[in-house]
Write a structure and sequence with these properties.
This is GHKL domain-containing protein. With 455 residues, this protein is of the alpha+beta class. The protein is 71% helix and 9% strand. It has a 5-stranded mixed sheet.
Length: 455
């Protein structure tokens, strides 16, 4: 009897564990093992309690709908969703819902296979054990597929527009509703298939089930098509905004260089007047030193703007270039002197674009906030790429040496209250990627952050 119940319990436990793993894969968030075991156990107990109590009382359809809702709630609670930003919360809910939909796809496939292999003649509990094992195997295949073709980036993009968010929610609810309402049809169809007899009742049930699935697929396809079109339009608009921003930045640099040249031309008369006495006295060394100083000053004024413009052209990732342009404009308005160096063309980074932008934005914002009240407003950004490995360094001066062991704690900040979330979020993002490393140094009055992304 113990072995019998173990055969019933273990496949369901494994299936719930893989359900949670699917959510981890699509959110790129890993739960600590003790917490994952706890949440998996909770999901398993919830499944058995509702299966043997709620299903007979209110029917399979409504019971499945309630079970799905509670399952999603348990999953998002296990991921500490209250501590997340709105974007990450929405992503988590959609990912958990998608995991449930994929779980039922695996369940249906396992049910059909078991009935086809004549396992339906077994007792109810034994059939649950067999289909549970089949479901776990199908889920394992789904997890492996998702690791190769992870929809993480697509799910992140859903939060870029309210209409797309609503469409995503409608598609998920539509599929969860279809799963719930198809339970009664599916149960009857599978029971009739055991008899292996084609009857009018079987044909009617099959037609109703097929119609329900086709309507769901059609509506879901239309909504997904609309959402895809909106996402494409949003991306195109952002691309054009980045192009306009880049052109504006180049024009501002050209205007500044032109103004510097006008100023220098206006000062030529005064400069030449200062040389008259030195020429009359035959002071060639003085003339040489004066001219070198003047030319160097001119080169420095014009060269900085040319250099920044040239370096930006080396960044081939439009999103990263747009972020750098925005940050450079912000720093210029704050009077911060930023030195930007791109050592090699940057064209490929093995990290999700949104996460990359968040990391770079946090590092630059952190440095900018520190320099806002500093007298020495100098910031240096260096980006280099060797083959597929990318390194991003942000260095700024600091008035007080920070406690390096505390800067990663949530809420820690030297800038006042209600701050200190940036570097905490930065660390959380980096921890999601095994190929991404962070390095922090503080020496000689400079605070340096280095983000290394390996291929």
């Amino acid at each position: 009897m113990v072995i019998y119940y173990l055969l019933l319990f273990v496949p369901v436990l494994l299936s719930q564990y893989l359900l949670l793993t699917t959510t981890e894969v699509t959110t790129k968030r890993r739960l600590p093992l003790p917490r994952k075991v706890l949440v998996t156990t909770g999901l398993t107990l919830l499944f058995f309690i509702l299966t043997f109590t709620l299903f007979p009382a209110i029917g399979a359809g409504l019971a499945v709908f309630v079970l799905n809702g509670l399952t999603i709630l348990v999953i998002i609670t296990g991921f500490h969703y209250r501590k997340m930003s709105y974007q990450n919360r929405f992503h988590l809910v959609i990912s958990a819902s998608l995991s449930v939909v994929l779980y039922y796809f695996a369940t249906y496939l396992a049910d059909i296979l078991c009935f086809y292999l004549s396992f339906g003649a077994q007792s109810g509990k034994m059939f649950l054990a067999l289909t549970g094992s089949g479901t776990a195997l199908v889920q394992l295949g789904i997890v492996m597929l998702l690791k190769r073709k992870n929809p993480y980036k697509l799910l992140q993009q859903l939060v870029t527009n309210k209409v797309v968010e609503v469409l995503a929610v409608v598609v998920i609810l539509l599929n969860l509703g279809t799963i719930a309402f198809s339970q009664d049809y599916l149960t009857d169809v599978l029971n009739l298939l055991v008899l292996r007899q084609v009857t009018p009742t079987l044909l009617s049930k099959l037609s109703s089930l097929a119609l329900l699935i086709l309507v769901n697929l059609f509506i879901s396809g239309v909504l997904i098509g609309i959402a895809s079109y909106l996402l494409f339009q949003i991306r195109q608009r952002k691309l054009q905004e980045n192009i306009v921003l880049q052109q504006s930045f180049y024009i501002q640099n050209l205007e500044k260089m032109q103004q510097d040249m006008r100023t220098m031309r206006h000062d030529y008369k005064n400069i030449l007047s200062g040389l008259v006495l030195q020429v009359q006295a035959g002071d060639m060394e003085g003339i040489k030193a004066f001219m070198e100083s003047t030319v160097n000053q001119f080169d420095e004024q014009i060269g900085k703007n040319i250099q920044r413009t040239t370096h930006l052209s080396e960044v081939e990732l439009i999103e990263l270039k747009g972020l750098l342009l925005t940050k450079l404009a912000e720093m210029e308005s704050l009077g911060i002197q930023c030195t930007l160096e791109i050592l090699n063309p940057v064209n490929a980074i093995k990290m999700d674009t949104l996460d990359l932008l968040r990391c770079v934005g946090i590092l630059v914002d952190n440095a900018t906030e520190e320099l806002a009240t500093s007298l020495n407003k100098e910031l240096k950004i260096v980006i280099s790429q060797e083959e597929q490995d990318v390194s991003i360094m942000v260095k700024n001066s600091v008035k007080h040496r920070p406690l390096l062991q505390q800067i990663w704690q949530e809420g820690y900040s030297t800038k006042g209250e209600n701050r200190g979330l940036g570097l905490f979020s930065y660390q959380r993002i980096v921890e999601k990627y095994p190929n991404v490393l962070k390095e922090t140094r503080c020496d000689q009055g400079n605070f340096t952050q280095i983000l290394k992304i390996r291929s």
